[in-house]
Amino acid sequence: MAVSASRWPAPYAQDAPGSGLALLVNANAKRGGRRVAAQITRALPGASVRLTKSTEEIEAWLRVLPPSRGVLGAGGDGTAVALLNALDRVTALNAPLPTTGILPLGTGNGWANALGAPKLHRCLALLGRSTAALPTRSFGLVEVDGSLAHFAGSGWDAMILEDYKRQLQATRGPGRRLSRSIYGYVVAALLRTTPKVALLGNPHLLIENLGDDVYVLNEEGTPYRLRHAGYGSVLYDGPAGAASVGTCPEYGYRFKAFPFAERMPGFMSVRVYARSPLGAVASMGRLWRGAHPLVGMHDWLAVAVRMTFSRPVPLQVAGDAHGLRQTIEYRCSRRIARMVDWKRLYL
Known about the structure:
The chain is α+β, with helices and mostly antiparallel strands. The protein has 2 domains: about 5-135, Rossmann fold (3-Layer(aba) Sandwich); about 145-335, Sandwich (Tumour Suppressor Smad4). The protein is built from 11 helices and 17 strands. The strands form 3 sheets. Strands 6, 7, 8, 9, 12, 13, 14, 15, 16 and 17 form a 10-stranded antiparallel β-sheet that branches. The longest helix has 19 residues, at about 180-200. The N and C termini lie far apart (about 45 Å). Mean pLDDT is about 90; it is low at about 1-15.
């Protein structure tokens, strides 16, 4: 059931710190809630701050929000995606999405890390001294399962995320803080996901191209056009431990899951990892760094693909579980996310 949003003071002075900014606080985030909303309001008294617990509340707030220099979400990747999807619904198709940003309050903070976001207090200080248009970095978005996102996938990645969340829910006491770290993620992967995958084995995967040109990458990571890969052609037919797409290089905890995500604007990175769990564990360091080439890793840059698995597999979209799917379609959206580039705010 939706929880009523808390309304925080609207801008009271045109020259107050944060004037022209709108900030959404996810009450469900790791460090979210009324305390963080109050902290933001104190640091940016000229901003409009909203505390929400549902997508309906986010959308209702956006519909009455005046034009802003930037709309920022305080939370993790899920908060950023919820905000972007709400902006998509309230923004005309022929109009660009407003400048969007992330204040890192989540667990993995993949997108925030890729954008160079510092700690919350430092983000607020940077925003407080900024009075002009915020510097941005553009990202494509993927359409999947009725949502826009910067990454999504099936197989081990979705299983690990689900196992990680279940492990976190079951952890009590001092160990809970450790479970929220990268340590908890790795433990879930090794002790929960790996045994299940070893028992079931990798499903078979068929990937079909639903767009026009497709690019692959040479050993240096330079893309080149794949010949005879028109609409309906088969890009992959074989086992898959993980099959994911992304437009942002990082996945959370600085895991560089999509090292080629920004190589070609207008394309998404499509990756399949075909090795066994033991092979993945042996290559964990190189996987984390986004090393290329990597045994068992297959990469494409495409605009639309269909993935069909031999059995239902879990789907995750920006880290949120979307149930089991046997066939999934991914498409590059016409929408572009113009995200606050924190590194350039330092200048």
